[in-house]
From TrEMBL:
<dbReference type="Pfam" id="PF01266">
    <property type="entry name" value="DAO"/>
</dbReference>
<dbReference type="InterPro" id="IPR036188">
    <property type="entry name" value="FAD/NAD-bd_sf"/>
</dbReference>
<keyword id="KW-0560">Oxidoreductase</keyword>
<dbReference type="GO" id="GO:0006072">
    <property type="term" value="P:glycerol-3-phosphate metabolic process"/>
</dbReference>
<keyword id="KW-0285">Flavoprotein</keyword>
<dbReference type="GO" id="GO:0005739">
    <property type="term" value="C:mitochondrion"/>
</dbReference>
<keyword id="KW-0274">FAD</keyword>
<feature type="domain" description="FAD dependent oxidoreductase">
    <location>
        <begin position="71"/>
        <end position="321"/>
    </location>
</feature>
<dbReference type="InterPro" id="IPR000447">
    <property type="entry name" value="G3P_DH_FAD-dep"/>
</dbReference>
<protein>
    <recommendedName>
        <fullName>glycerol-3-phosphate dehydrogenase</fullName>
        <ecNumber>1.1.5.3</ecNumber>
    </recommendedName>
</protein>
<dbReference type="GO" id="GO:0004368">
    <property type="term" value="F:glycerol-3-phosphate dehydrogenase (quinone) activity"/>
</dbReference>
<dbReference type="InterPro" id="IPR006076">
    <property type="entry name" value="FAD-dep_OxRdtase"/>
</dbReference>
<comment type="similarity">
    <text>Belongs to the FAD-dependent glycerol-3-phosphate dehydrogenase family.</text>
</comment>
Amino acid sequence: MAFRKALKHTAMVGGGAVATVFGLSQLIEYRKTQARLAHVAAEAELRVPFADEFPSRQAQLAALQNTEEFDVLVVGGGATGAGCALDAVTRNLKTALVERSDFSSGTSSRSTKLLHGGVRYLQKAIMQLDYEQYMMVKEALHERANLLEIAPHLSAPLPIMLPVYKWWQLPYYWAGIKMYDLVAGAQCLKSSYVLSKAKALEHFPMLKKDKLVGAIVYYDGQHNDARMNLAIALSAVRYGAAVANYTEVMHLLKTKDPQSGQEKVCGARCRDVITGHEFDVKAKCVINATGPFTDSLRKMDNQETKNICQPSAGVHIVIPGYYRYLRNPLKGRFVGISKA
C-alpha cells in the first residue's frame, strides 16, 4: 500500500511538474535566444585587442604604477575577482586586479569541484512552486554547459550514483532526477538511469548491502576550480588588464566629491609583498572581491561599518576512490567522496 501510495503521489507531482517545467523552459529559451542575438550584435560593435604573449609580473606591476587612472580596480584574485576583471576589460574598461597571495589560494581552490544545477533546489522549486529556485537551477545548468564547452581541458561530465534503500523512494527519486534532465533540455549531459541492486554493488562494493533496493545514476559536471580561476585571470591579462599577485592593499585612497562634498574611494595604496615596495593605484571604481575578507576591506573605508559577512566552512574528505559515496549515519545524508 505504501508503495502504491508513493507511486500515485509521484505520478501526480511528476505530471504537474512536467507541464510547469516545460512551459517555463520554453519561455526561458526564447528569452535566452533574444539575449544571444543582442550579445552577437554588441560583440560585432566591440573589438578588444588580444595579446599573443603574457607580460611578466614586473611589467604588470609597472602598468599598475604608471597608469594615471584605471576605470576599475578589483581587489581579490579568486574566481569572483578574476571574473570581474575579465568582464570589465572585455567591455573596453581600463582594468586592474591585485591579489595579496596567489590566484585561487583561498576559497576558489577549495570547492567541491562540481558543476551542478542543484537537484535539491529543483525539488524546492517544484514542491513549493518557487519560480526563483527554478530560475537558479536553470541558470546553473546553462552555466554548467558553458564551462564544459569552453574549457573541455579543465572540465568533464561526472556520473553520480544515488543508492536507494526503500522501494517507494525509487520511483520518487527517479521522477525528480528526470525533472533535472528535463530542465537541462538540450544541455543534458546524459540521461539518468536506474541500476539494480546487483549492478549498484558491482560498481560500488563498499555500499551497505542491507535493504539496498537499487540506485539511480545521473550526470553533473566536474572541473579543476583552481586552474579555471587561473585561466580566467590570464585571459583578463591577455585582453589588457593589469593583474598582479602577491600585491596587498594597505589602505584605500579617498578624495572629496566636488558635488556632494563627501569623501569617496578613488583607489588603493598597494604593497608588493615580495619586495615591500609601496605604490598607489588610482581608479574610478574599486570592487571588493575578497571573499571571507570582505569586511576587512570595507572597514578600510569606514571603521565603524558593521560586518556583513558570516564565514562558513565545509569539510571535504579525500580517501581512495573505491569508497566514492557513503551514507552518513549521523544525518542520513549522502557524503560525496572525491577520488584521490
